[in-house]
Amino acid sequence: MIIRPAKIEDLVTLLDFEQKIIEAERPMDPTLKTEEKINYYSIKDYILSTHTEVVVADIDGEIVGSGYGQIRDRKEFFKQKQLGYIGFMYVKEEHRGKGISQAIITYLCNWFKIKGLEEIRLTVYDKNPRAIRAYEKSGFEKHLIEMRLDLKN
Questions:
Q1: Angle at which helices 100-114 and 129-137 cross, to 10°
Q2: 123 CB contacts (<8 Å, ≥6 apart)?
Q3: Euclidean distance between CA atoms 90 and 96, whole angstroms
Q4: What pLDDT tens digit does each residue of the chain (153 aa) get?
Q5: Distances in whole angstroms, Cα of residue 127 to Cα of each of 69, 124, 144
Q6: 3-state secondary structure 69-110
Q7: Do 120 and 53 form a contact (C-beta atoms < 8 A)?
Q8: Which of 31, 95, 118, 137 is positioned for an S-S bond with 64, CB 3.0–4.6 A?
Q9: DSSP state of 78
């Protein structure tokens, strides 16, 4: 397995991964639109960006996983001016449990270190315990809890 930066030629596969992520997360989030196709990311722009590193896991020429690391500015009251943010984590179902997510996270952590960042954050649905365990295995800790109240119901 090779973890490498994504190329524009990978875009079709990455757009498919994005839709699979959305499909898996729709039952976890009643606020997502269900009647139309949506996109979370500007993957093409991210690939071309200098502040975002989109990566893929490649096994014998087949892309089996993805993720991105993005440098984000912080508000002035934080100690660090920027932080790293990880998103777009996806591994094809038949390749889960093989350490691919961990390899992608390790690659992105090293990219952030090279960029001089000291902190990485991500968001994950509370109703996604498998993803939470994978992130905790990489050393992430729960930090904030986002809560919502549905005023319609």
A1: 50
A2: 87, 146
A3: 9
A4: 999 999 999 999 999 999 999 999 999 999 999 989 999 999 999 999 999 999 999 999 999 999 999 999 999 999 999 999 999 999 999 999 999 999 999 999 999 999 999 999 999 999 999 999 999 999 999 999 999 999 987
A5: 23, 8, 15
A6: EEEEECCCCCCCCEEEEEEEEEECHHHCCCCHHHHHHHHHHH
A7: no
A8: 95
A9: S
Q: Read off the amino acid at residue 78.
A: F
Owner of token pair 């397995």: 1
User: What is the C-alpha to C-alpha distance for residues 113 and 125, in angstroms, rounded to an integer?
Assistant: 26
Nearest to 104 by CA among 121, 84, 88: 88
Whether 110 contacts 53, CB under 8 Å = no
Largest CA distance in the chain: 50
3: closest CA among 47, 49, 66, 46? 66
Task: Return all residues near 62 (Cβ < 8 A) that are at least 6 apart.
Answer: none
Q: CB–CB of 70/62 below 8 Å?
A: no
The structure tokens listed for 3 are 């973890």
Q: Which two tokens stand for residue 107?
A: 């690659």
